[in-house]
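Homework-ish question, so no full write-ups if that breaks the rules, but can someone show me the predicted structure for this set?
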Amino acid sequence: MSGDEDVLWQLAWGFMAISLIAVGGGIAVVPEMHRLVVEVHGWMSDARFAQLFALAQAAPGPNVLVVGLIGWQVAGLVGMLVATAAMTVPASVLAFGFSRLRTRLRGNAKLRLVERGLVPIAVGLILAAGILLGITAATGWVAVALTIGSTLFVWRSDRSPLWVLGAGAVAGALFL
Amino acid sequence: MPPDTAPRPSLTKLFVTYLRIGLIGFGGVNAWARRVIVEEERWLSEQDYAEVLGLAQALPGPNALNVAIQLGERWHGARGALLASLGLFGGPMAVLVLMAWAHDRWGELPLVKAVLAGTAAAAAGMVIGTALKMAQNLRPAPPILAVGLAALVGAALLRLPLPVIVLGLAPFGIAAAWWTGRQPAKPGR
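A: Not a homework solution, just the prediction itself:
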């Protein structure tokens, strides 16, 4: 059916374009995804979009997999595969080409400066992402205490973070 | 960091490890990738991993995926890049379909909501703790630290779009790296 095919093309082109402006990571383009999915095509409601996003965050794996859930919602299994491929394949090819180039230029002094200069931005952005997630999750004192406790545990110990995630789940069930 | 990194992984080991990173990667897969690659397997030093991650953020596309592609390519060329990214995405995608189905059936139960809320709060702490650990291990010189703080303020306080932060701060980061590199090495480093 041409209608189904149209939707698949819209998924493919839409997410391909979004992936190529996703400098900083997949989460940087969530507002853009919202525009495509809710405002431009009306594939789902605002609430459903937020729900899928929360689900992708709760699940293991890259949060960008929310794209797969959107595809699933819009066009089933094929939609999921098309959307995920559109979001990942062109960016992957670019990263691969860049990695090749980096191998060829290894030891180049200018490249070393670029590599070392991007490090503090990477670490600063991770810290910012954690703080923003913490603010979203801070529904009360229990949640804030969980975030602080988990910060100290992961920072100061070498044990697996699964301990704090498990503790968070139990504390959530009991107190939230 | 002491140069005590392990030899490069085999292709199978790389795939299995990335599958594991994907499947245990609750609450932020970048934190888990760093833990497994730097702390558990010791394939990269903290500095080396942070550099790969920094480049991954400057390239378009998902960060964790860009890291997987770069590491796979570095160790095993095109096959390595393909298997690392398949491992990273394959497992979680299957889980996510099951979760989406389960969520539609039981997601509105108060207990499920409470467990998810508690996990989200703990996951936020995990991401913050990972960043603090990285900063501590990297021991940045003051100009580098300043660029990191600027990125933090830009993203957390000013809520600037990420591309603006990455591309806008990159010249300052490079300048800071250049300036730091010109200083005589401090004793004891």
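Now go work out the reasoning yourself. Hint: Residues 2 and 150 of chain A are 51 Å apart (CA to CA).
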